[in-house]
Amino acid sequence: MADYELGTPGRSAPATPGTPTPLISSMRVDSLSYDRKSMPRCKCLPIDAPTWGAPHTCFTDFSAPDISLTRKLGAEFVGTFILIFAATAGPIVNQKYSGAETLIGNAACAGLAVMIVILSTGHISGAHLNPSLTIAFAALRHFPWTQVPAYIAAQVSASICASFALKGVFHPFMSGGVTVPSVGTGQAFALEFLITFNLLFVVTAVATDTRAVGELAGIAVGATVMLNILVAGPSSGGSMNPVRTLGPAVAAGNYKSIWIYLVAPTLGALAGAAIYTLVKLRGEDEIDAPPRQVRSFRR
């Protein structure tokens, strides 16, 4: 992203009538920082109306490339396949080799997979990888509803393909990759709701606010996934994602309490995204603040 910083202080005098516009402006290009007050706002993708009574908000502060829906869906399919394959393989290997992975290994498999997929495909599809995230972003007008069915179809099909690939490789140990609760239904529901709330709070911060961690978005989201699995993995499986549960459930034929993993993450995602949208700083909150150096990861 090219960022801009005003080269001279103060307001310049108006141009003399008839004076040609210079080919090179007085603005200095800096790839790491910009003055937010001098940065011209651009047309953003894909929001056209205010959210929660706030001013017009964007996915990013810079123009998004024109990427076809086919390319986005292809990146989303591959990214979700990688995530489900890695996140499900960890518990399967743990089962097959008598705890060789451990809980920390399972958490690392999922967190590292999320991180590398965001860093490699985030600029193409946004790297949602999660129907709950896609629905939450659409509900808060960070993503067009017209693309939601196609994104969810890509995520679900990728999850099923990855799960059957794992079944072929690790048979008969597929059951180890299915997320099923080891606690009561209410406790599992609450855990999945809360950890998905945590995840979407972080994702919304790094995806919709350029004052957040920017290029470190992949690391921030991956670390959140790891933390959530360390907390909830032994109890609910730490799914946070309907397709993390759906694909392995189909491959293993185990649908125990599957409704929890479809409903709780979606509600938690909506709540987490909405709360960050409510608490984040608005443009008017920064009027008297000095210019800050920021980095932006999302397109």
UniProtKB/TrEMBL annotation:
Recorded topology in the membrane: Multi-pass membrane protein
Segments for region (Disordered): 1-21
Principal localisation: membrane
SUPFAM superfamilies per the UniProt record, alphabetical: Aquaporin-like
Gene3D superfamilies, per the entry: Glycerol uptake facilitator protein
Name of one Pfam family that matches: MIP
Keywords associated with the record: Membrane, Repeat, Transmembrane, Transmembrane helix, Transport
Any one GO MF annotation of this record: active borate transmembrane transporter activity
GO cellular component: membrane
Subcellular location field: Membrane
Membrane-spanning residues: 73-92, 104-127, 186-207, 219-238, 258-279
CDD domains registered for this protein in UniProt: MIP
Family in the record: Belongs to the MIP/aquaporin (TC 1.A.8) family. NIP (TC 1.A.8.12) subfamily.
The name this protein goes by in its record: Aquaporin NIP5-1
